[in-house]
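Priority: medium. Attachment 1 of 2:
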């Protein structure tokens, strides 16, 4: 009987050894060798000690196999998919799933920018060091697995505080030709179709898919259309050497419903006061990959990759307490604002793994390098049309027209020293050279250009780390500490207003991640991972108010500088219990799994200076204070997920419950909501999701689900700008029904 995995949260490996037996027959003895039996692994799994020329020993990591869980993959429901990973914060701007916004350990989820986001091992964000926002993620129906390596992975992937998130796409390696289709309908005119072909013919392999999806959206003015296309080709010269190429293209058009004030949200969270706001990001990602095994001890991988993309928006961007209405004097709407970014980046990354012995124990050395170059053209504040469609036309171009360049060279090495077969120590080093240049026109004042004087920041940054792992049967104790780093971003050196100023000595953010945990399995029914973490984030960048020319009578300006340090610390835990295997009744009742992921996060400022102005000129008074002890914005005190899953024969179902604590949305820890909805405490929320699947006639499946089963009214974020200032509601109750086949 086929075993279908429904719920699990880390790799389960059951090893059963049959003792050598002696059989006496006709005065002869036959000795049977020991046999190891490993059942199907549950999801999420954990990385082995080494994989893909990368060392994972001692690092906290999770691997989610999407074909082993029940979730709404059609709309990329991150709440369901990431529920089996503790400590993941999710921003839910709208229900399209076009952009996945996740953060870990109290870090900002904004377009996953505290993570090094990758697809099949190469970068997919706008500019890794200049503007690391991930406007693109693949459709989850095309994804085989998600790999999340926490901050301790920074030495081999990059210096990001959050670590690395990698989307691994599906491939077909067994058949000459395969065809897969998944077609979905759902609430608010959701229509989706995913179609893929793939196969392997001799030394040649191929895979291609197209995913198209559209819906009107749960909120008013939130319709969207998105298309994702991908092609992969591979040729294996020998069993040890192969070359592959892949290309991904995405394009979408999304209406942005905008934010609400708290009063508007409480009256009707589905309402929208913006029907002229649109957003789109044409995206092209490509990669050339070369794998070879030079000898039994040395293997190498080289990736040449690139990205060409855009970020386009047009709309009325005022706060929600400002009405977008027809002006009776002009008998027309106000002109909309148009902003456009153009991205081009290219990189080369090489990874190698060398296996060698010290005494009788095999050790591993991973090393490589990275070359990267990016260019961003930013055009903002364009005077757009008074219309309502997705029209990027402007009058007289763009007042703000900037160019940003990033160059990066990195060298990295980690060595896993196995002191015994059970205990290993993995020290590592990464060297980063980053050069950032910005120039162009900042704006136009009185008909004259306001130049953005060229700024160049060069830095050389060595990073160090140490990981340890001790095996105890099918469990292990792991620990690591790794330095992290976040260079000054383009947005940090670009003030939002002409009057604002930038600290010429602006420093990059730096800090470290530390983990101590215990994980593993017990027999074939218990799977767990519990750990403590500590994250130090120094030199956070923000704005403080100062006097113009040191004269209170001349007013104040915003001075953007390094403000202080935050400490994020807490507990992360996961446990999965297969009840029917524990009671040894799975053959009769199928598999019943209970899982829980828990995280308690204490994220606070230890030093954060602010300045406030009061009074009117010439009697303006500036007060300095320190927010030491305040909670970091957008960091909930807790995030818990509880799930119940059942599968028997060809049917599987998962019911899961997510709890997330209150969050402050500004560093001042403002409780009362502002009149425009931009600041204020966001309440805790609880959301229930149900997803099911039935497989029939060998090749077919029927999937269905209800998200937000109890129709909870909640919000996960407030915005000060895009996708619309104000409080952004999470989606209410929706359903989906899907039928698919694979041949």
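Attachment 2 of 2:
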């Amino acid at each position: 009987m086929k075993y279908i995995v429904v719920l699990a949260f880390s790799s389960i490996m059951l090893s059963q050894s049959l003792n050598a037996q002696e059989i006496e027959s006709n005065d002869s003895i036959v000795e049977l060798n020991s046999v190891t039996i490993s059942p199907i692994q549950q999801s999420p799994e954990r990385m082995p000690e080494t994989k893909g020329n990368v060392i994972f020993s001692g690092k906290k990591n999770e691997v989610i196999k999407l074909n082993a869980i029940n979730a709404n993959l059609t709309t990329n429901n991150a709440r369901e998919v990431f529920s089996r990973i503790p400590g993941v914060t999710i921003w839910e701007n709208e229900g399209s799933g076009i952009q996945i916004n996740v953060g870990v350990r109290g870090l900002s989820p904004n377009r996953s920018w505290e993570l090094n986001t990758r697809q099949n091992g190469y970068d997919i964000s706008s500019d890794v060091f200049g503007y690391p926002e991930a406007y693109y993620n693949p459709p989850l129906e095309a994804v085989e697995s998600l790999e999340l390596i926490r901050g301790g992975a920074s030495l081999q992937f990059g210096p990001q505080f959050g670590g690395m998130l990698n989307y691994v796409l599906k491939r077909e390696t067994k058949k000459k030709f395969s065809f897969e289709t998944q077609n979905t309908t759902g609430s608010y005119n959701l229509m989706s179709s995913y179609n893929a072909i793939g196969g392997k013919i001799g030394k040649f392999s191929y895979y291609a898919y197209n995913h198209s999806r559209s819906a009107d959206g749960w909120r008013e003015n939130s319709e969207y259309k998105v298309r994702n296309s991908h092609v992969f080709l591979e040729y294996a010269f020998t069993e040890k050497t192969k070359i592959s190429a892949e290309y991904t293209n995405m394009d979408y058009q999304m209406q942005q419903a905008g934010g609400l004030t708290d009063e508007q949200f409480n009256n009707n969270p589905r309402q929208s006061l913006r029907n002229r706001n649109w957003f789109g990001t044409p995206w092209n990602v490509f990669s050339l990959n070369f794998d070879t095994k030079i000898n039994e001890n040395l293997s190498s991988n080289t990736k040449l990759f690139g990205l060409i993309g855009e970020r386009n928006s047009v709309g009325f961007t005022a706060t929600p307490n400002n009405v977008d209405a027809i002006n009776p004097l002009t008998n027309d709407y106000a002109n909309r604002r148009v902003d456009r970014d153009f991205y081009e980046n290219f990189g080369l990354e090489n990874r190698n793994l060398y296996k060698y012995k010290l005494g009788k124990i095999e050790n591993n050395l991973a090393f490589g390098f990275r070359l990267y170059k990016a260019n961003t053209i930013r055009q903002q504040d364009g005077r757009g049309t008074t219309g309502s469609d997705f029209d990027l036309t402007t009058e007289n171009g763009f007042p703000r027209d900037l160019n940003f360049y990033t160059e990066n060279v990195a060298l990295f090495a980690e060595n896993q020293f196995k002191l015994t077969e059970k205990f290993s120590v993995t020290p590592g080093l990464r060297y980063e050279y980053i050069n950032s240049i910005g120039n162009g026109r900042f704006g136009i004042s009185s008909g004259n250009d306001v130049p953005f004087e060229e700024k160049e920041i060069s830095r050389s940054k060595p990073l160090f780390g140490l990981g340890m792992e001790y095996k105890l049967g099918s469990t292990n104790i792991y620990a690591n500490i790794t330095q992290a780093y976040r260079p000054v971003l383009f947005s940090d050196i670009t003030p939002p207003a002409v009057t604002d100023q930038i600290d010429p000595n602006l420093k990059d953010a730096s800090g470290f991640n530390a983990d101590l945990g215990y994980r593993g399995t017990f027999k074939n029914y218990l799977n767990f991972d519990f750990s403590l973490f500590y994250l130090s984030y120094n030199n956070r960048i923000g704005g403080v108010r100062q006097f113009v020319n040191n004269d209170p009578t001349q007013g104040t300006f915003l001075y953007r500088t390094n403000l202080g340090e935050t400490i994020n610390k807490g507990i992360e835990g996961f446990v999965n219990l297969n009840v029917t295997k524990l009671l040894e009744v799975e053959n009769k009742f199928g598999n019943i799994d209970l899982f829980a992921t828990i995280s308690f996060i204490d994220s606070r400022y230890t030093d954060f200076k602010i300045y406030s102005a009061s009074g009117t000129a010439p009697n303006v008074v500036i007060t300095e204070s320190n927010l030491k002890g305040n909670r970091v914005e957008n960091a909930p005190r807790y995030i818990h997920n509880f799930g119940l899953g059942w599968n028997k024969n060809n049917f599987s179902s998962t019911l899961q419950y997510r709890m997330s604590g209150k969050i402050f949305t500004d560093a001042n820890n403002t409780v009362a909501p502002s009149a425009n909805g931009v600041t204020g405490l966001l309440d805790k929320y609880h959301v229930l999701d149900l997803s099911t699947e039935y497989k029939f006639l060998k090749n077919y499946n029927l999937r269905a689900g209800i998200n937000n089963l109890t129709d909870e009214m909640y919000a996960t974020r407030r915005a000060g700008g895009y996708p619309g200032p104000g409080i952004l509601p999470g989606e209410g109750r929706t359903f989906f029904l899907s039928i698919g086949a694979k041949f």
